[in-house]
Queue: 4 jobs
Job 1
Amino acid sequence: MSARDRQRGSALTATLAATAVLLPLAAFAVLLTRLDFYVHDNTRAQAEVFYVAEAGLEHALADIPRGESLEQLLTGPDGYAGSADDGVFPFREGSPRSFPRAPFGYQVRVERVNSQLLRLTSVGSGARHARATVEALVAADSAPYVPAALYAPGVRAIAIGDFQISGFDRSGTDTPALPALGVDSAETASALRSNLSADASSRLVGDGGPPSVAKVDSIGLLGLIQTFGADGRVVRIDPATLPSPVQLGTTDQPQLTILVGDPTLTGSVQGAGVLVAPNGLVVEGSLAFEGLVLVGGDTTFGASSEVHVDGALWVDGVDVILAFEGRGAMISDRAAVRAADLFLPGVLPHSIVLKAWRELF
C-alpha cells in the first residue's frame, strides 16, 4: 500500500471518527432546541391561563354589589338557595363564554369557609389543556355600606325648599364624599338633574355635584324594614299619641323606633338609633335625629317644619315623591350609621372586601 493510500485511509478514519462524535452532538443540539421550544410554549400557555384565572377573580370582585351579603353570593345566579347553581358565582351579566378570546376562559365558584369568610376560586383554561387556579378570601367590611346621604332608588320627583342634602361627612375627616342623592339608574339620575332648579341643584352637594345625584348600588330596603319590624327590641309608637317634646333614644342609649298609624309628626321629636316609618313620613313640626331613618313611601317635610338628620335617610318605594319644603338639612354621618349598626348588628348591608389571595399549584 502506497503512502498516498495510507494517508487517504487515515483521513477517512478521522472523518468517520469526527462524524461519529459530531452526529450525536448535533442530534443533542436539535433535541435541546426542540425541548426548549416546548418548554417555552408550555410556559407561555401556563402564564396565559394564570392571567385568565386572575382576570376571572378580578371580574368577580368588581362585580359584587357593595350592598351584597355573603349569603346572597352563595345562592348562585338564580338567587335561590338549594338549587343546582349554588356555588356558581352570580355575575350580573353572566359569566363570559371566553376571555379574552377562544380557547381561553374562566369559571368562578364560591364556597363558605366560616361564618365570616367566603372563598372565591377562579379556574382559567386555555390552549393545550393548560389550567391555572387562583383563589381569594373575602369578608364583610367592618363598616356598614352607605350608598348616599339620601338613598331613594324609586324616586320620581323631588322638591327642595330651604333644605340642604349633603354627602360630605359631618365629621369633616378625609372620608370620601357620598352622593347627596342616590338612585337606581343613570337614567333616573339624569332626569332628576335636568328637572331641578338652579337653587335646588345648589342644595344637593357631595360627590359629583352640584347637583350631587348619582346611580348607586342597590340595597334591599323592604327587607330591612321588615327585619327591623320583627326585632324584639323595637319600640312601636303612634305619632298621634306622642307628647311634645319627645325623645326617641340618645347617642348613649340608641333606640329602634317604628311609627305606626298616621305617619305625621306634628310636635318636637328628637332621637338617635334607627327610626322606621313603613307607611311614609310627614313632618309638620320638628325632627332632630342622629342615625338611620328608613321610610317606606312618600316623604314630606312641610313648609313650617324643621328637620335635621345626621346619618342617612333611605326611602323605599316605586315612584316616590320627596317634598322637602321646610328648613333643615340631611347630612351624611357614617359614624352615626355605624353606631346604629353596632346597636343592631347583622342587619345593615356591608360591602364585601378582599382579605387575601393566592395561586394554587
Job 2
Amino acid sequence: MLRAVVPANAPPDFVYRTYSAITHGELYGLMNFMTPGASSSGSALLHWYLPPDVLGSTIQVTIAAFKQTYERIRKVMGWGMLAGDLWEAKIRRIYRNGSH
C-alpha cells in the first residue's frame, strides 16, 4: 500500500510512524460518524453509524493495512508462508468476485 513512499530499507521507526499515522487517522475519521443515543436505562451513549458506502471503504482500507503490516511482520519474524498465502488468496477472491 505504501511502497511508493516507504522504501524497503526504511528504518523501523519510520515504518512504525507511517503506519501509526494512517491507523490513527482512520480511527479519527471514523469518530466523525459517532452519533448520540440513549441506553435502555436512559443514560447518554455514543454509537457509530456508518453509511454502507463508508463502511465498505473502511473495511477495504483496514484489510489493505492489515495485509501490508502482516507481510512486513512475516518477513521480519521469518514466519512460514502457507497461512498468509491462503489468506491472501481468499482476499483476492473476495475482491474479484465481490462475495465471501
Job 3
Amino acid sequence: MEILKGIKPVFILISIAALLVAIWAGWIRLGWPFPYAHPTLPLVHGPLMISAFLGTLISLERAVAINKLWMYLAPLLSGLAALALLFGIDNGLIVPFLFSLSSIILVLMFIQIIRQHPAIHTIIMGLGSLAWMIGNLLWLYSWPFPQLVLWWVAFLVLTIAGERLELNRILKHPKPVFYAFDFIIVLYLVGLSLSAILLLLGTRINSLAMLFLAIWLFLFDIARKTIRLSELPRYIAFCLITGYIWLGTGGILGVIYGGYSAGLYYDAFLHAIFVGYVISMIFGHGPIIFPSILGVSIEYSKILYIPLILLHISLVLRISGDLLLISQLRLVGGLLNGVAIVLFLIIMAGKIVRSRRKLATGVS
C-alpha cells in the first residue's frame, strides 16, 4: 500500500485540474471570449465539474477511509476520464464509459460499507453513489442532459445529506425529527424517479424535497450550535448554513421553473445548487478533507472567509442576472464565482505547502 502515498496527491491534482478547466469552460459558456484548446470544451463544463472533479474527489475520500487497494480503481477510472475530457480525447463513449465503471465501483464500496455499518445515513450516501452511476449510464446511452443532470444533482445532495445525518445523530433529536428527514429523502427519490418519465412533475417534487431538506438542515443541523464557537468550527458552520440557504433557493427555483431544459432559469436553478450549496460544502469541509487525504494538518485563519463571502455575493449577482434577464450582471457574477473558487484553492494550497515545510523542517 506504500505506492498509494504517492498516488493520492496525483488524484487530487487531476480533480483540481478538472475543476479549473470546468471553471474556464463555464466562463466560455456564459459568453466570455476566452480561448480554448478544443471545440468540445464548453460542452463538458458539467461533466468536468460533477464527475471529473467531485466524482474523483469523493471516490478518493471513500477509498482512503477504507483503504483497500481495489477501491482506488474508482478514482483511477474517473481520473482517466477526467484526463480524456481535459485533452479532448473522446468519441462520445470513452468518457461516460469510464465514469460509469468508476461509479459502479463506488456503489460496490458502499455495499461493503452498508454491510459493515448498516444505518440510514450510510444507505442514503449509498443511494447517492447509485444516483451518480445511473446518471453516468444515462449519459452513456445518450439521454438528454436535463434529465440525467438531476441524477448527478442527487449524487451530491444525497451524499451530503447522509454525511450531515450521521453527524447530527449525536444531538439526540426527538424521533419525529429524524422521521421527517427520512420522509424528505423518500419524497426526493420519488421525484427523482418520476423525472425520468415526467420531467416537469418529477423536477418539481424533487425540488420541493430539496426545499424541505434545506429547512430541516437549517433548523436541526449541528451547525446551529457550532456557529457559536470560534475559529474553524464557526467558519465551517457559516459555510454549512449559507449552503443550506442556497439549497432552499434551488428548491424554490425548481418548484417554480421545474422542467426548463435550457436558458437563464435553468442556469439559476442548477447553479444555486452546484455553486451555492455544493461549493459552500467544499469550502467548509476542504480544510478537513484535503489534509486527511494528504496526511497533513493546516492552520485556520480568517482569510478563508474572503473566498466564501465573494462566492455568495457573486452568486447573488449571477442569479439576479438570470431572473431579471440582465446579461451583464450574470456575466460578472459568473466570472466572480470562478474567481472565488480559485482563490479558495490558492489559500488551501498555500496552507498545505506551509504545513509540509513545517513537517520537513521539524517546526512545531
Job 4
Amino acid sequence: MPRYDYTCTECGLTFERLGGFEDVVAPCRCGGVADRQAVYRSQGVSTRPAEVPDSEPQYQVESQRKALRARGWDGDRAVEHIRKNIREDAQGHKQLDVVSANADL
C-alpha cells in the first residue's frame, strides 16, 4: 500500500499513513478527522544535480556545512576555533564563549 499525507481538520496535525487510493479521510489521534492531501506526480526524470532545500530542517545542516566549506572551514579549523574560545569560570567549569567565538567568524 502507498503512503499518503493527511492533515487533521480539528488540530492541524499533519501525518503519514498507509492507505488505499480510496482512503480520502483517516482518524487523527486527537479524535478528529484528517483529510488526505493532494498527490503530486513527477513529470519526468531530471538530469540536473539535486539541490539541498534550505527550508527543510533535516537539510539545513548539510546546507550550512557546504557554505562553511566554501568559506574555508573544515573539521580541524572548527576544532581549533572552539578550543581557542573555551573559557573556565571560577568553579573550574569550561564553557564556550559564544560572543568571542561568533566575533571571530
